[in-house]
Amino acid sequence: MISRLNYSVIYPALRLIDAQQPEGIMQKSLDKNSQMECPRHGDQRPAFICRHLQHGEELGFHQPDAPPMADWPFQNAWCDKCDRVLMQEGEWNERSEGFADIIAICEGCFEEVKQRNIKKL
C-alpha cells in the first residue's frame, strides 16, 4: 500500500518471482510474508518506489505519513514530481499511479535509493 495523508492504493495483482523452483520461474501472490531475491542483498522483503527514484539522484523522497501496517508491512516512496501529481489528483488513481509507474525493489535497495534521492541542503 502506498499512502500519504489519507490517500492509499493497494497492489493486489503484483506477483513476485520464486527463483527456487526447478522449472525456473513461478509466480506467487504478494502477502505480508513475501520475500524477493536480490542479487546484491539476498532474500529481502519487497519495497515499492516510483520508477523515477530507481536511478535518480536528489529527486526528493516522499514516504507515507504513517509507518507500514502489520498486514501490509512494505515500505513505499515516490519522488517530488509524483507527489505533485498525487496532490493535483487528490488521490492515487489511474493518472497518479500511471505517472509513478510503481516498481518493486528489495528493502536493501530501498535504503540505497533513499540516501541517493534525499535532497542535500
How many domain units?
A: 1
Q: What value does the average pLDDT take?
A: 81
Total strands:
9
Radius of gyration: 15 Å
Strand content: 15-25%
> N-to-C terminal Cα separation, in Å?
30 Å
Uncertain runs = 1-26
The global form is globular
Structural class: alpha+beta
| Oligomer type | single chain
Please give the share of residues in helix: 25-40%
Largest sheet: 3 strands, mixed
Spatial order of the strands forming the largest sheet: 8-7-9
Q: Secondary structure elements and their pairing?
A:
Elements: E1 2-4, E2 7-9, E3 15-18, E4 26-29, E5 36-38, E6 42-44, E7 46-49, H1 51-55, E8 76-77, H2 80-89, H3 94-100, E9 103-106, H4 107-117
Parallel strand pairs: 7-8
Antiparallel strand pairs: 1-2, 3-4, 5-6, 7-9
Helix pairs in contact: 2-3
Could you characterize what this model shows?
The protein has 121 residues and is an alpha+beta fold. It has one domain (11-117). 27% of the residues lie in helices and 25% in strands. It is built from four helices and nine strands. It has helices spanning 51-55, 80-89, 94-100, 107-117, and strands at residues 2-4, 7-9, 15-18, 26-29, 36-38, 42-44, 46-49, 76-77, 103-106. The strands form four sheets. Strands 8-7-9 form a three-stranded mixed sheet. The longest helix is centred in the C-terminal third of the chain and has 11 residues, at 107-117. The termini are far apart. The model is unreliable at 1-26 (pLDDT under 50).
